[in-house]
Amino acid sequence: MSWGFLRDILSGVNKYSTGIGRIWLAIVFIFRLLVYVVAAEHVWKDEQKEFECNIRQPGCENVCFDHFFPVSQIRLWALQLIMVSTPSLLVVLHVAYRKSREKRHKQKLYKNPGSMDGGLLFTYLISLIFKTGFEIGFLVLFYKLYGGFNVPRLVKCDMRPCPNTVDCYISKPTEKKVFLYFVVVTSCLCIVLNVSELSYLIFKYTIKCCLQRYDKKVQTMKSECQKLKYIDPDETARTALFHSNASPVLVNTPDKPESNLPTDERGG
């Protein structure tokens, strides 16, 4: 199986990852992908042929193997590698969308198409959530399918067409157990890294928003202070005096005396 496409995906997203994300990429490359290709794939190469039962009943070994290994462990491991790496493709596609949008509008729409802000940050967080979900899901699937993370030397099978309970032997059980534990440990480590990176990005974005609001508030206060600074104090005093003198004053106007009446009215 060729893993070149997975290498290209992870190499592309490496440019837009944080420090924790680069550690995750290194673990996926070295401790998971290379170990799978170099060693683990050969351990499970002929697992069905090397699965033996102490009976020659036709079909018994095939039925027992399918019962204990409904999905080959090595194929499930390969599927896990693909699924936990594919969400990183969302980030690469988002950056490519930004670049194509700038080309289409023929102008600079972003400070940097790969800068971790806005929609790209949201896409990156979504990819982290998907990767963490796939890691946990595959660990649960491993546990449910194989009854734990152990590879026994001997299993007892009573499935039809076996005439009775037969003993079946798994090839290289110790070696397979070591690799299975390795899968579990690296998966747990990747989960811790994904959760740490998710928390770090959310905390960083929250602090950034708080600082931006604080800076905006400070700038507003500075602009108001500048306006008050350039107001003429004499003009302010005159304005205040004008408003104080402009209050209404009631003046009592005396009635006109009768002597001011016409002469005819006094005589009458």
Short synopsis of the structure:
The protein is 67% helix and 4% strand. It has 9 helices and 3 strands.
Q: What are the salient characteristics of this protein?
A:
elongated; about 270 residues; disordered C terminus; 9 helices; three-stranded antiparallel β-sheet; mainly alpha
Structural class designation: mainly alpha
Q: N-to-C terminal Cα separation, in Å? A: 134 Å
Helix content: 55-70%
As laid out across the biggest beta sheet, the strand order is 1-3-2
Low-confidence segments, given as residue ranges, are 246-268
- Overall form: elongated
The biggest sheet, with number of strands, parallel, antiparallel or mixed sense and barrel status, is: 3 strands, antiparallel
Beta-strand content: under 5%
Task: Tell me what you see in this structure.
With 268 residues, the protein is mainly alpha-helical. 67% of the residues lie in helices and 4% in strands. The protein has a three-stranded antiparallel β-sheet with strand order 1-3-2, with helices on one face. A hairpin with an 8-residue loop joins β2 and β3. α4 packs antiparallel against α6. The protein starts with a helix and ends with a helix. The C terminus is likely disordered.
Topology:
Layout: H1 4-13, H2 19-43, E1 52-53, H3 60-68, H4 73-85, H5 88-105, H6 118-146, E2 154-157, E3 166-169, H7 173-229, H8 233-245, H9 263-267
Antiparallel strand pairs: 1-3, 2-3
Helix pairs in contact: 1-5, 2-4, 2-7, 4-6, 5-6, 6-7
